[in-house]
Design a protein that fits this description.
Elements (H helix, E strand, L loop, with lengths): L5 H9 L13 E3 L7 E5 L3 H4 L21 E4 L14 H7 L18 H10 L1 H10 L23 E2 L11 H7 L8 E4 L4 E4 L8 E3 L19 E7 L2 E9 L11 H7 L2 E3 L7 E4 H14 L3 H12 L13 H19 L34 H6 L9 E9 L4 E2 L20 H12 L16 H5 L7 E3 L1 E7 L5 E7 L5 H13 L6 H4 L4 E6 L2 H4 L3 H8 L10 E4 L22 H8 L3 H4 L4 H21 L1 H30 L1 H8 L6 E3 L2 E3 L12 H13 L6 H33 L3 H28 L4 H10 L18 H6 L3 H39 L2 H37 L47 H54 L24 H24 L15 H8 L7 H15 L1
Parallel strand pairs: 7-9, 8-11, 12-17, 17-18
Antiparallel strand pairs: 1-2, 2-3, 4-5, 5-6, 8-9, 10-11, 12-15, 13-14, 15-16, 19-20
Helix pairs in contact: 9-10, 10-20, 12-14, 21-30, 21-33, 23-24, 23-28, 24-25, 24-28, 24-29, 28-29, 30-31
């Protein structure tokens, strides 16, 4: 993943950005001329243009194929482009010069990028290099040591680069000063340069014991042959040192070495007779680095070895502790998860509904009875507020976390044994053998508009993999991982069932009654339309204990996958697909985890996703604050829009509509709803074509020859209309084809069109033989006329007199019907592109910042404008043909299309001033009136307005629910922090060795206020307390607008009082609306 700023990283974790988008760097090109190999083709900031050439960075000439000049600015790969990055405003203010007297003040400096700082550093290169070289030695080297008075002849020959402000000294002084820093390297002067040696080569011997600290054990044998050769790995390298274990009473046994090393904060590589150890500091450093950057143990140890020796043949002499480190870091991760999860302190007694022993970082904001939600919520909550007691889940498969089939340890299992995201191997393997392996592949066949994510993944791309990926469940609103299972044969519904059931059991470990507190479950899945078909049957068969809650689960298709589904699969409101952004982070670990043993892979994935969960929790306050503020603004806009729409539609209509049921109803094979127009009045050109072919097919057998002829004629005319579409496209494309690549595309398109046109001409001579002369003339003129200008000589290209002479009346009738369908298509497509442009313009206005983002947004808008012009031209051409074929000059069914007719009120934002006095163009009602009598026309207009009103009402209600949900989530976050503070405080003073899950002989004396068990618990309690206090302060801030119900206040009344007015006051709001319209007039 490309490096990102802290702000962007936080935004992704908060869910404001659906995914890490690699297209953000699309405007950068790769150039091998610089040290980093990365350059950006952007304009040089104006501040640099005014500087002398010596101060500027290297620039290049005009970009190939571009008509505008540009410069190439050398950049480091991790820096933002100058056109996007913003400099420090304080620094800019300090650098600004005061204007001279009598002169106008200079214009404020524009924000600058990294180039400004690079120029400053470039000038300091000589100083930087000078100090780097000076730091390679010291002027006092080989001078008498400060101890020379007591040690005659002692010289300063040892230097330490691990210490700050260290003065060179003799070896004896070095040992004395480094008694407590035994892992610092000694740089020993050898006359002209330094040797980097371990402190043991100066005579130091480690003493590993419980009681002696940095002092030698009085009973230890420190003779020349007695100290043990010990490999100690720290963050500054691999040390081959000397060590002696404590030989005092009760500490001299070989089995004591394990605990003696741990007491010295050294993690032994083995339990029995360890000869290699890793400092806790090293393990903590690697743990944090691998969590944040997904660095593999192999790469980390390779870097540590190079810290020991980074060049020369001595590098091969450095021990490689990779194998030992691989197992040690895995154990360290597991015990750290157990410690942080509160399992050592017995936290399970506070969470009776969670699986025992769980180390998964939970979602602190999702509703959990007795933890972050008062019990009275679940008992007293009214149906109007069911959205506050529902659980949202996201289900999705990911194929970036595979596992290769190779020779490994078959007995390797997870150290967490089902306490993490993955289930117990014994249970899941049995389920895979009995259920997954026997699941029929046909059950995954999708009938949904060419979208089949499940089937597409079952390909040869998983050859060599014993695990093809994972399927996980996250909470649907906060992207916290809840459960995960492995996939064996691609993505199977049976795998998804198991993952979903694990997530649900997290809320009902003790009793199913607890999960019934949830009034509804909302579950998203990219193939939800297929997954839910037999979901109940599968659950009744494999998970009978969860069968009672099947009816509470509602499945939806998330936003990102809607385009691949049929309309019947699209259930509004469309849930977002936050789990995809989680996979963008998870995929980084796939390169290393796919090579691991089974258990090691599980432990690693659990650790990575636990960290993801924790970061989401840390940023939860920011997420809730920003989303709640935005939701309040959107709610007010939706209310204003709905009120204005209601008043403009009239009280009589609104009252009648309010009595209608919003429940969908099935009519025949289709579903009808107040949220959509019941029928489509406009046949498309393809529908007209199909209707013509079918009607011809139904003719009598006696007219079989005529039937075939007519079918060919219809096909011939339909192809001609498509060729005209391509001609118009090339005419528009030619106007904007400026670059070499665009000219090449234009030439290829012309050649393709010419070939298809010549083939079509052959059919034309058979169907329209009277046009042979004209076709010949057209062929002769084609050398001088571009193919997009060539006349096709369809019936509409002739006047009525010529059509009679040429015998084209039958073809004219067929073309007329096709042209009507073409006009319908064009107008509907025109409406779609106008609405699309509205959205893009608002997105650009709200989100585009800087040159790059604005350029990209403008490019998309221009693309839509290009399509809009094409649809308008298509309608005008179809209208011209219809009028010619009908031999009329005007037609009420086909009005003239002007720019004003393509106006529409902005459907993206709330109503704007003046909207009430404006009317949308006729295209928004076109076709709905064609072929209908007056009553039918009025009914259809009313139906369209009704759908618009119901959708506006639904928008308003959903935003109201969103505000209420975000407020309640803020309260849950605060309650959760309070609960965790109380739990950890209580656990700090409670430890019973008889019932504790882990026996603690050194840290479990809670009577000692300094014992580690107690101190750690109180640190955790203080952390949650501070998070909760800060979150509550933010929630009650006036700009956020949060509030708490009184202890005894009815929760339903509290929520109702906070709701804005959603009913139209016809007297008051009507007068306001009339006054607004009058002012606009």
């Amino acid at each position: 993943m490309a490096p990102t700023s802290n702000k962007r990283t936080k935004a992704v974790a908060r869910g404001e950005i659906d995914d890490f988008d690699s297209d953000d760097d699309a405007d950068f090109t790769i150039d091998s001329s610089g040290p980093s190999g990365i350059h950006s083709h952007v304009a040089l900031p104006a501040q640099l243009i005014d500087e002398p050439p010596a101060k500027r960075l290297r620039t290049s000439s005009v970009l190939p194929g571009s008509s505008e000049s540009a410069t190439t600015l050398s950049m480091d790969q991790t820096e933002a482009p100058p056109a996007l990055a913003t400099g420090d405003s304080d620094d800019m203010a300090q650098d600004a010069e005061e204007p001279e007297a009598g002169t106008s003040p200079p214009k404020p400096a524009k924000p600058q990028g990294a180039s400004r700082y690079m120029v400053d550093f470039l000038e300091k290169f000589p100083v930087l290099i000078d100090y780097l070289l000076a730091g390679e030695s010291h002027s006092a080297i080989d001078q008498p040591c400060s101890c020379a008075a007591t040690r005659p002849g002692a010289l300063r020959k040892i230097l330490c680069f691990d210490c700050s402000y260290f003065e060179p000294c003799c070896s004896d002084c070095f040992l004395e000063s480094h008694r407590n820093c035994p892992t610092h390297w000694a740089h020993r002067w050898k006359g002209q340069s330094f040797d980097k040696v371990d402190i043991s080569e100066l005579g130091y011997v480690f003493t590993f014991s419980h009681a002696h600290g940095a002092q030698r054990c009085p009973n230890g044998d420190y003779g020349d042959k007695k100290p043990l050769n010990f490999i100690l790995v720290d963050t500054n390298g691999v040390h081959q040192t000397k060590a002696v274990f404590c030989a005092c009473a009760n500490h001299g046994k070989p089995e004591d070495r394990f605990t003696e090393l741990l007491h010295c904060r050294i993690f032994p590589a083995t339990v029995a007779r360890p000869e290699t150890g890793f400092t806790f500091g090293l393990l903590e450093d690697f743990h944090l680095q691998t969590l944040t950057s997904k660095k593999s143990p192999y790469d980390y140890i390779a870097a540590i070895r190079r810290k020991t020796c980074n060049a020369g043949p001595d590098l091969h002499e450095v021990p490689n502790p990779y194998v030992q480190f691989l197992r040690v870091q895995r154990v360290f991760r597991a015990v750290t998860a157990i410690k942080r999860g509160g399992q050592v302190h017995g936290i399970d007694r506070f969470f009776l509904n969670r699986p025992p022993g769980s180390v998964v970082v939970p979602c602190f904001v999702c509703p959990e009875p007795g933890f972050n939600v008062p019990d009275r919520y679940w008992i007293d909550i009214h149906e109007d507020f069911i959205h506050l007691v529902q659980l949202a889940l996201m289900l999705d498969g990911h194929f970036g976390l595979q596992r290769f089939g190779k020779v490994d340890d078959p007995d390797d299992v997870s150290l967490l044994k089902g306490k993490g995201l993955f289930p117990l191997d014994e249970l899941y393997n049995e389920y895979v053998r009995d259920v997954v392996a026997n699941e029929e592949e046909a059950s995954h066949k999708s009938s949904c508009s060419n979208f089949n994510a499940v089937e597409m993944q079952n390909r040869l791309k998983f050859r060599g993999c014993v695990i093809s990926g994972v399927i996980a469940v996250e909470c649907g609103r906060h992207c916290i991982f809840l459960s995960m299972v492995d996939l064996q044969k691609g993505e199977r519904f049976a795998n998804a069932d198991y993952a979903l059931m694990i997530a649900l059991r997290r809320f009902m470990s003790s009793s199913l009654d607890r999960v019934k507190f949830f009034k509804r479950f909302i579950t998203t899945y990219d193939v939800a339309c297929q997954f839910e078909v037999h979901f109940g049957e599968r659950i009744f068969k494999s998970f009978p204990d969860l069968a009672p809650i099947v009816d509470l689960i509602n499945f939806l298709v998330p936003k990102m996958h809607l385009d691949g589904h049929k309309d019947k699969c699209k259930r509004w409101p469309y849930p977002r697909e936050g789990i995809e952004q989680s996979w963008a982070e998870s995929k980084q670990s796939g390169g290393s985890s796919r090579q691991m043993n089974h258990g090691h892979r599980h432990d690693t994935i659990i650790d990575f996703h636990n960290f993801w969960n924790w970061v989401k929790f840390e940023l939860m306050e920011d997420y809730l604050e920003s989303h709640l503020i935005d939701a309040r603004v959107s709610l007010q806009g939706a209310i204003d829009h709905f009120f204005g729409l209601s008043i403009s539609r009239g009280k009589e209509n609104v009252v009648a509509w309010s009595k209608l049921s919003t429940e969908p109803r099935k009519v025949g094979s289709d579903w009808e709803s107040v949220y959509r127009v019941s029928t489509k009045k406009l046949p498309s050109r393809e529908a007209v074509y199909l209707s013509l072919v079918q009607s011809e097919t139904k003719r009598s057998e006696a007219e079989e020859i005529v039937m075939k002829t007519q079918s060919v004629e219809t096909q011939f005319l339909n192809t001609g209309l498509k060729l005209q579409e391509r001609q118009r496209y090339l005419q528009r494309f030619k106007k904007s084809a400026n670059t070499d690549s665009e000219q090449t595309t234009l030439a290829r398109s012309r050649a393709a069109l010419l070939g298809d046109l010549r083939q079509w001409r052959k059919t034309q001579l058979q169907i329209m033989p009277t046009l042979e002369r004209l076709a010949l003339e057209s062929r002769l003129e084609s050398a001088e006329v571009f193919v997009e200008r060539e006349i096709l000589y369809l019936p509409s290209d002739f006047n009525s007199t010529d059509r009679v002479k040429l015998g084209l009346q039958r073809l004219a009738d067929l073309e007329l019907r096709l042209r009507e369908g073409e006009a319908n298509d064009a107008v509907l497509a025109l409406c779609d592109t106008i609405a699309h442009k509205m959205v893009l313009r608002e997105v650009k206005k709200s989100n585009a910042r800087g040159v790059t983002q604005n350029t990209r947004a403008t490019k998309f808008i221009r693309g839509v404008e290009f399509k809009r012009a094409g649809h308008a031209a298509q309608y005008r051409k179809a209208r011209e043909a219809v009028l010619e074929l009908q031999n009329v000059k005007e037609s009420a069914n086909y009005p003239v299309l002007t720019e004003e007719d393509m106006y529409a009120k902005n459907a993206v934002n709330a109503r704007e001033l003046g909207d009430g006095s404006k009317t949308d163009g006729w295209i928004w009602r076109y076709g709905n009136l064609k072929g209908l009598d007056k009553d039918e026309r009025d009914a259809f207009v009313i139906e369209t307005e009704r759908v618009q009103w119901f959708r506006a009402k639904a928008d308003m209600e959903r935003w109201m629910e969103e505000v209420e949900t975000l407020e309640e989530e803020f309260r849950r976050l605060i309650r959760a922090c309070r609960s965790m503070t109380d739990y950890w405080t209580q656990m700090s003073t409670e430890y019973d060795s008889a019932t504790a899950p882990y026996l603690l002989s050194r840290s479990g004396d809670v009577t000692n206020p300094n014992c580690g068990y107690r101190v750690y618990a109180l640190q955790k309690a203080d952390m949650y307390r501070r998070i909760g206090v800060h979150a509550e302060k933010c929630f009650l801030d006036p700009k956020v607008g949060g509030a708490w119900p009184d202890e005894k206040e009815d929760i339903n009344e509290f929520l109702r009082k906070r709701r804005p007015r959603l009913e139209v006051d016809w007297q008051k709001d009507g007068k306001d609306f009339e006054q607004l319209v009058g002012n606009e007039k």
